[in-house]
Amino acid sequence: MGLALTDVVVGCYSIILSILMLSCMKATNASTIANVWFVLILSTGPHEGTVPSGYVTAGRIEKMEVVKGEPGDEKTKKKVCYNIVFVTAEAAPYSKTGGLGDVCGSLPIALAARGHRVMVVFPRYLNGTPAGKNFAAAVDVDCHIKIPCFGGMQEVAFFHEYRAGVDWVFVDHPCYHRPGNLYGDSYGAFRDNQFRFTLLCHAACEAPLVLPLGGFTYGEKCIFLVNDWHASLVPVLLAAKYRPYGVYKDARSILVIHNLSHQGVEPAVTYKNLGLPSDWYGAVGWVYPTWARTHALDTGEAVNLLKGAVVTADRIVTVSKGYSWEITTSEGGYGLHELLYSRKSVLDGITNGIDVTEWDPSSDVHIACSYSKDDVTGKVNCKIALQKELGFPIRLDCPLVGFIGRLDYQKGVDLILLAVPELMQDDIQFVMLGAGDPKFEDWMRVTESSYGDKFRGWVEFNVPISHRITAGCDILLMPSRFEPCGLNQLYAMRYGTVPVVHCTGGLRDTVKNFDPYAQDGKGDGTGWAFSPLSKESMLEALRLAIRTFREHKSSWEGLMKRGMERDCSWDNAAEQYEQVFEWAFIDQPYIS
Ligand SMILES: Nc1ncnc2c1ncn2[C@@H]1O[C@H](COP(=O)(O)OP(=O)(O)O[C@H]2O[C@H](CO)[C@@H](O)[C@H](O)[C@H]2O)[C@@H](O)[C@H]1O
């Protein structure tokens, strides 16, 4: 295929422009120049292998894109592309226990689609169940490394799959092969989780240096996105283990906080296991508040991996704006609020997007009948099918309320437990899907046996049924005590299911309270956000929603329609992440 003359002209223009920009920058900022490449892209064809064609393997690649609008209206746009390394404990569809898996399974794809080179590093879990087939397409890249930690040299291997424009890199070690879920089994959390995720972090720091994915390593000029406590050792390792030897001087790290309530806290004596130099204790060292100590001689000394990332990462992102503020307060900061407040200038909130391919009522393979915002009639069939599946009487006039989530203090399940005896007096049907705290699981089973024709407690982690509940219900209840972003309310709105949520964190940011009088009486809003967090205010909001469903059909249709029309794709969030990457590279590494 030959080049058109216009392409050649634009190409020459771009080369000249690049040379000019390069010399300008030389005069101003020599250290930035070291990791900036100007690449002229005449045409952006499909990616081959893992190195997008026309790219240079570097931390930051400035790509001159020819933007073609109307004929004669061609202009050159600068786009900076990065080598991005996600480090996470889970990524869907390979492994998922909650929203972290959803985000790390879809944000990398959105960033790759925007031109970045993206790798996701996470464990190769095998628990002896059919879930193991999720890893079947990954191949052993025949690269074994030895990691110095926990008193010896631990050998890990890497597996790799290139899918949807992303390098999925699986860290392999026997500690990830055992029955149970990703973090524990019926006896509780695995006792060696600190070991398992220390290995992950060390391996993730090596991956860009040693893995020739598609023939080229990512190299050390990259940006690490470290998710939650499991990946939090990465920025500490960059600062303590690599930069003193001149490695990763041009890399940056961003801590992404999905949930501050889990911090990876272990006794202080375990510091020696982490593979950090002895004089770096201060980065991860932490002292419990007095009230949390267990006995009079307890000094409260501990290592806290998330705290280590808060003090060493170049920037911090939380998964909604509301939550980024909440974590700087004593109510929401879980003991880290003062530290987080001190880093306020590099703390941003970016609301999660959702995987709009997996969660699309017009093509969802799990639901009984497809529908869309332009034709919602199929939703009725989904409701009938769900009522059948749950053994409820088939009644379209009866509001069907759902709850999906981990059975955990965070999700406000205790509030539902308190409210159910009253709620069951009303003419409603209520389904709860969740697994977690055994005391809530038992309560769901008992409640189902007491209110057989109107309450179902589905105790399991089951993705297909979560889709069917999202599609078949009229209302989704989320009384979360705190919610960094929340995904189920986003899925619900996309499926025309109206959310009733506690007004907190990402729920407050994404669910707009219904106002029947707005827009000259046409109404506005996408659901109900109640406050304070009490049984009474939750019941009041739920009953208001139920009354609107029963008595104000056009208002209800408006609520459904506005929810379904919301833009919740990842592209918008990915663009905001790009802004944060740019800011991260403007500054020198926070700890150099
Ligand atoms: N029993 C079950 N069966 C099937 N699917 C189930 C299930 N229980 C939960 N899920 C699924 O797991 C995901 C849960 O995501 P959330 O964002 O609501 O919460 P989570 O607290 O895990 O995530 C944390 O990280 C995410 C991502 O940043 C933040 O949105 C959130 O606020 C934060 O607490 C959803 O996809 C949901 O459908």
TrEMBL record:
Gene3D superfamilies, per this entry? Glycogen Phosphorylase B
Q: In which pathway does it act?
A: Glycan biosynthesis; starch biosynthesis
The keyword Chloroplast appears for this protein = yes
Q: What biological processes does GO assign it? A: amylopectin biosynthetic process; starch biosynthetic process
Q: What Gene Ontology terms describe where this protein resides (cellular component)?
A: amyloplast; chloroplast
Q: What is its EC number?
A: 2.4.1.-
Main location per UniProt? Answer: plastid
Q: Which InterPro entries did the record assign?
A: Glyco_trans_1 (IPR001296), GS/SS (IPR011835), Starch_synth_cat_dom (IPR013534)
Looking up Pfam families in the UniProt record yields: Glyco_transf_5, Glycos_transf_1
| Molecular-function GO term, any one | alpha-1,4-glucan glucosyltransferase (ADP-glucose donor) activity
Annotated compartments: Plastid, Chloroplast; Plastid, Amyloplast
Q: Which HAMAP family does the UniProt entry name for this protein?
A: Glycogen_synth (MF_00484)
What is the official name of this protein in its record? Starch synthase, chloroplastic/amyloplastic
